[in-house]
Design a protein that fits this description.
about 290 residues, 15 strands, Alpha-Beta Plaits, four-stranded antiparallel beta sheet, 7 helices, 2 domains, alpha+beta
């Protein structure tokens, strides 16, 4: 069954947040950089269905129309490498921001799932136990929608809280910023929306954010992500609440729209390698 036909069709491009439950067929150690390995797995699944699209996604230096989560589940670590067991089930979430990326990925995933054909991650065979497409049963992380639906459903709340569920950082000049400033967070979402949605937002929206959106409350902690023996990034995880001060209803709705879009787009650097997993959540708990 196709992911696309399960979606209520809209006029604009489809957005997909898909969770795969994976079980390894043997106990084995994965590579030292799981984010890169899962990035490679996504491209390999696309390549199985369409080599041209996979090559284009790999070679592009522009914003990428997909994100990849960290591998979730009970992971033991040995010599700085995650150890997976056939007694355990693991999860990874992939999102796509364009139908060009979704269609071949969908075709390959469903082929592996229906035919129980193993896929390979760092040389380790895994079978897909389940594919989650809806918020039910996925704690709200899986969803299918379109840009048009998100735009039409955007609310007008002036208080927005975002959760950062994998290490997140923003590149500012030569510096990695370890704090979710409003202009960094909403700017990252704005650029992806403008790049892929086909629905233009207010050109002055980021100027409005700089002047009228403030951090209200936050609870954050720093984390380290290694991308090789001599390269690592510091990032933050946690929650941050934002308050919109003033402004007309259109701009308030567009910021609410971008907050809803975060589930699919992620924020900040290396969202295709496990970083910047973000979505709208309830308010921050008091200290």
């Amino acid at each position: 069954m196709s992911l696309v036909v399960q979606h209520e069709r809209g006029k604009s491009e489809m957005l997909a947040s898909i969770i795969m439950r994976l079980r390894p067929l043997e106990e084995a150690r994965l590579g030292k950089t799981p984010g890169r390995s899962l990035h490679a797995l996504f491209l390999e699944l696309v390549r199985e269905a369409d080599e041209e699209i996979a090559a284009r996604l790999h070679a592009s230096t522009a914003l990428k129309p997909f994100t990849v989560s960290p591998l979730r589940g009970k992971l033991a670590w040995r010599d700085e490498r995650p150890l997976v067991s056939p007694e355990e089930s693991y999860r990874v979430r992939f999102t796509t921001l364009s139908e060009e990326a979704l269609a071949p990925f969908n075709y390959s995933v469903m082929g592996h799932y229906i035919c129980k054909r193993p896929l390979t991650l760092d040389g380790v065979p895994f079978v897909i136990e389940d594919v989650l497409l809806t918020p039910e049963g996925s704690q709200g992380w899986a969803r299918l929608s379109t840009y048009e639906v998100l735009y039409q459903e955007a609310g007008d709340e002036r208080s927005i809280t975002l959760g950062f569920f994998s290490p997140t950082t923003f590149r500012t000049g030569d510096v990695n910023l370890l704090f979710p400033l409003p202009v960094s967070v909403f700017g990252s979402l704005y650029r992806k929306w403008q790049a892929f949605s086909g629905i233009a937002l207010d050109e002055g929206l980021m100027d409005f954010v700089e002047e009228h959106v403030v951090e209200e409350r936050y609870r954050l902690a720093t984390r380290v992500v290694k991308y090789g023996p001599q390269y690592q990034l510091n990032g933050f995880v946690g929650r941050c609440g934002y308050r919109i001060l003033g402004g007309d209803r259109r701009r308030v709705r567009e910021l609410n729209l971008l907050a809803d879009f975060a589930l699919f787009a992620g924020v900040g650097q290396k969202t295709t390698m496990g970083m910047g997993q973000c979505r709208r959540v309830g308010g921050c708990a008091p200290d």
